[in-house]
Amino acid sequence: xxxxxxxxxxxxxxxxxxxxxxxxxxxxxxxxxxxxxxxxxxxxxxxxxxxxxxxxxxxxxxxxxxxxxxxxxxxxxxxxxxxxxxxxxxxxxxxxxxxxx
Length: 101
Description:
Blueprint: H1 2-8, E1 14-19, H2 24-40, E2 45-50, H3 57-62, E3 70-75, E4 78-84, H4 89-100
Parallel strand pairs: 1-2
Antiparallel strand pairs: 1-3, 3-4
């Protein structure tokens, strides 16, 4: 958990994808996130958190993740945006760019 706090506290925005391997919409989000990462490069860090791994339970509970996929965008340690469900790449890029401004 402390390592996660350090990760989200940096200058680079971090998009956290809470997902499950059995989740259909999560599988849809995977190529979208790849596209966003390719488009934004080093200006964004993407972290995937499998909600079913026991070591991730504290993160799931702390951030009140009730459904997957759930995306949280952190900037300097604070949640700047949150969404559950699939998001188009173009929309996601716009939100991230607004957070970076």
